[in-house]
Amino acid sequence: MPGKSAADRILAAIRAVPRGEVAGYGEIARRAGLPGRARMVARLLSENDDHSLPWHRVLRSDGRIAFPPDSPQFAEQVQRLRAEGVVVKDGRVRGQRAAASIDEILWAPPKRRGK
DNA sequence: CGCCTGACCACGT
DNA sequence: CACGTGGCCAGGC
Fold first, then answer.
1. Model pLDDT for residues A9-68, shown as the tens digit of each residue
2. Looking at residue A76, which CATH number applies to its domain?
3. Strand C: which bases are under 7 Å from protein Cβ?
4. A1, A21, A34, A57: most buried, per Cβ within 10 A?
5. What is the structure's pLDDT at A115?
6. Residue A66's domain spans which residues?
7. What DSSP element (H or E) covers A77?
8. Per the domain annotation, does A73 fall within a domain?
């Protein structure tokens, strides 16, 4: 149903990221069918208030946190990621580049599901 | 309608 | 890996 708004698809893509994995803004936008709208994803998250949304799993393409190291949000994101088993070092995620494998995340069938 | 800003990205050095 | 430059898009004024 192509009636869904861009913002809705973006949020869906973010929610599609499983616990313990991370994704990049650009990759999220791409999976949402909005190539080149990485900034829109960022703006959306900045406005978003949904606590059920795993915003902490969204990083920059470099695998780095999108917040300055001295920001409270930065600490929060790092803590949340570590709580999920993600290795964070100096504000950057180790063990998996942000979104380089988002396709795997959305297409991989590790969990039984209709598809 | 034009200008500035931003949880960005890719490329080259 | 760090820094600088240009590009792209959406919002607010």
1. 999 999 989 888 899 999 999 989 999 999 999 999 999 989 899 999 999 999 999 999
2. 1.10.10.10
3. 1-2, 8-11
4. A57
5. 47
6. 6-107
7. helix A72-83
8. yes
